[in-house]
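Quick check before the chapter quiz. The format below is the same one you will see on the exam, so make sure you can read both the input and the output lines.
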Amino acid sequence: MKRNFLIILFIGALLPFSGKAEQQNPANNDIWKVGIARKKITPRESVWMAGFAARKSPSEGAIHDLWAKALMLEDAQGNRSLLITMDLLGMPKNFSDELRKRIHKEYGLDKSQIILSCSHTHSGPVISRTLKYIYPMGESDWITVDRYTAQLAEMLFQLAGEAIKETKPARIYTQSGITRFQVNRRKNVEGFSADKSLPSERNLLPTISLEGPNDYSVPVIKIEGADKKLMAIIFGYACHPTTLSLNKFSGDYPGFAQIELEKLYPGTTAMFFQGAGADLNAFPRLTLPLSKQYGKQLAATVERVLSEKMDLQQSVLVHKYNEISLPLAKPLPIEQLEEMAQGNDYHARWARGILDEYKQNGKWMNSYPAYPIQYWKIGNQSLFVLGGELLVSYGLRLKEMFGQDIFVMGYANDVMAYIPSATVIEEGGYEGDTSQHAYGLPAKWDKQIEPVILKGMEELVLNAKTN
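Here is the expected output.
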């Protein structure tokens, strides 16, 4: 009897430790605080649209509204970060810096904690004075752009505050899917069909060789409330949003994908980020039905990922940021620039513009001094974030270096030019040689930008591991 009593006492003594072990189970360290907000950013007046040099006039209405959406994350230790996604072509650094400065002053978040991500739709408005050499715009057109830019800055600041202030307990899951509707446009050239009776945009057909590097992955982040209800879906894809060339505002295929997901999951906010897709296009393209099709195809892939097992991420957040100097090659000879300046296209406007800058400054800009690179780790999920129009080779190279399950985001915090690989710079063509005309850089990049960027990302990851 005494022996049985001692056994009961022993078992009873173990029970509190059993309960404590349950509380310390890693599965109980997966609760985040998450805030979500959204704001319509469709311009209220006609304004020039960004992305196609062939445009000759401002916008003429909208196919659907443009949106900015915000996600605030806070881990179990109180570390915070803010992601804002936007249906915009891109934003320049002066706009990005001023917005992040305001958010820092009001809410204490530094640059490492903020991502400003643009989908790169070519059916959004021009903002700030970027792409100033592309369009034949007059001063009154730029005043309209300036007015919208100021309105946008205020809306995004308000949006950040709404997401930061409204947080709820949630769990975060991640996983990747695959879909294929884009090809490498440098290796797969569009051509005209033999049927000239078709509307011109439908004549554009791709070669079907599907050569060149590509990345078909669809990264997905699921935000689920404590009540198991889906709160938000963050997803990406690497493909130029150029399926439409109409003079009407639209999020292009990413916009249609977000609309479709929000129909499938009522009450959920769907947020898109652009991957390393600067040299990838959807083929075929340039019709509204195709744009809707690709949006639904991408949404179906996300739906499939959400329906399968996803990786639950522990409530641990890491965020790192740096700005690095990228070298430029030597500009063209002044005589050649002066000859180019005699034309009427945007290349001529670019030549005239940089010649004027040279006269004012007495020298050429020889580097871009503050290219933004960023690293987030959400639980065990790594997110690599880079500025500019990032070519697919960077996404592939980062996956070789850090694992195939990482997520890669381009077009974030500053879109100042295409970011080509050393190989593409050597090959030339639009992405490697002349794309800087659109953004106003005086020369193409030096081939050393590739190792400089990759080394910068390596250092960010190393810094994250040692701190």
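If your answer matched, good. The longest helix spans residues 139-165.
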